[in-house]
Amino acid sequence: LFIFSLMVALLSFFFFFFFQAEDGIRDLVRSRGLGSNGGVLYVTDMDTIEVSNLSRQFLFRRDDVGLQKSKRATVAALRMNPKMNIVTFEIPVGPDTENKFNDRFWSSLDGVCNALDNIKAREYTDSKCVFYEKPLLESGTLGTKANSEMVVPHKTKSYAEHEAGGEEEAIPMCTLRNFPHLIEHCIEWARAQFTDVFETPAASYNKFIKNPKEFFVDIKKQKEGEALDVLENVTKIVKTIEKGPSFETCSNLAFSLFITQFRDRILNLIYAFPEDSMKEDKDTGAKVPFWCGAKRFPKAAEYDINDPFQFEFLYNCTNLYLTMFKLPVVRNREEFKKQIASLNLTAPKWEPDRKFLQKVQNEVKDQEAKSEGRETTPVVEETDEEKLTSLTKFLQEFDISRALPVDKADFEKDDDSNFHIDFITGCSNMRALNYTIPTATRHKCKMIAGKIIPAVATTTAMITGVVEMELYKFVLQLPVSKFCNSNINLAVSDFKLFEPIGPKKAKESFDPLENEVVVPVPDGWTIWDKIVIDKGDLTVGEFVEMFPQIHHGCTISSLFFKQPVDGTPIWLDFPITTQQKELVATNTSKKISQVYTERWGESDKAQIQLYGSIQTSDGKTASVPPIQFVFRK
User: Fold this and answer.
1) Catalytic pick among 174, 186, 250, 484
2) Is 174 a catalytic residue?
3) Cα separation, 224 vs 214, whole angstroms
4) Side-chain half-sphere of 559: how many Cα atoms within 13 Å?
5) Which of 10, 124, 350, 445 is the most exposed place for a label (fewest CB within 10 A)?
6) Which residue has the higher pLDDT, 244 or 600?
């Protein structure tokens, strides 16, 4: 009551604020009036309202279920204070929406408040607040625990500068791949399958048809096993395109994945370790069954389209392949079942996979050695050089002029129509059935695969009030010593409030990547500092030549784009390969904005972030603040 009565004083106060999710404006807009009297309050959230939200997100009611959070939150806020000027979006804030949330947008803000549910999104927003020097009110909850952090330009650390807390104990890869005993193991494995089947291959194929020369250069840099995986993935997509993508070809791909993962993989594992296998107990030396304790003896799946779990896997997997090849999806389950049944899919005869047997046996030995505290012996996997050469030749002879890009599936847990969570659910449950593990609901799979932490209404309300109090301090322009960060646990009534720490200052230190001591220029620069080069739309050569005059006599030996990062240099002072020499010769006379456009496409950016290898005037390796190249007003 004290907080809300105090907020009445700010009802008519002008403050231009940007919120990233409904959580952030839940109670805050109720009595403050941000965005009134000429100000603007931006709200964005791409999620829709679910029934579970009603117990902890107080702007929503039963009639709002299924509608956009940002829109309904705005409607509720305007009922409380019609004078507020709110602009609503329904899109994420990230690299893919920088055409909407562009330089002009970020520069116009007075501040940002986060209410996000993942670290990646927090780090992205934090990077923008640092680049545009905007204050950030950051907070989060974990059950009964909550924390808040005030990020003040040039006065405090940024969110990204804080060391990460203790990570969750990782599940051994051997357990995930071969010996799951919990449904959580199956869900983690299914999430990895989604990436391995619908994200990575599509990205590799698109890179191949965009720039085959660069693609094969990268292939040569990879280990043979990794290179073979990439070539096999790309070849599979190329052959599908040559046949002509259709419902039949996509169904065959889904069926092949089903047979490979839920029949052949299991039969190979049983072949490697039969049910009566024995192993030596590390303590007593006695022989004990291999399949005991957490190791569950598996059972291979037998194809049956009438099995509801198999049907769900094939339904969602096929539709994801249809989406990848930009074909119409089949949402009607009865129609899908008719079409899939008409194909008369038949599993090929199983034969032992010698390469798989060797790999799984090595993984088991490695895991046992780790559990006993012994050093593991590196195993050099056999590679099929003949196959590697054959796939490379096949792709080199492919006519890319008739190839079209495919759609890469970027995992999105909150879109119920994209088949992502449904595939992971179907895949998890098929895996669970292989190992006689109880199956999981779609909701549980979404929680675990999407790394969603259940929220407690009391915790959310409490941390909102804490953040609101800090907002007053921004508005009143109080010194940073008056601000408070917090770590709170309501379960044990533990409240810790403490002053924010100042930004880290760069200092001379040994850099293991450079393998030498790196000197900061200027000494003590922080993450908030920048090298602003606002001399017009310079060519690469002009930029390199002008840099020593702008920044303490430092010279550039290599130059790259910082966002997005692709590892391809813009310029090198000592190119080695023919490709590097051609690139430097071509780029030197080009405007930097032109190089950016050729690489990333047209953009309305007015400035570009750059980085590179920098030397001091006396030839020492230097660390410098981020480079902000302004080429357009």
Assistant:
1) 174
2) yes
3) 17
4) 27
5) 350
6) 244
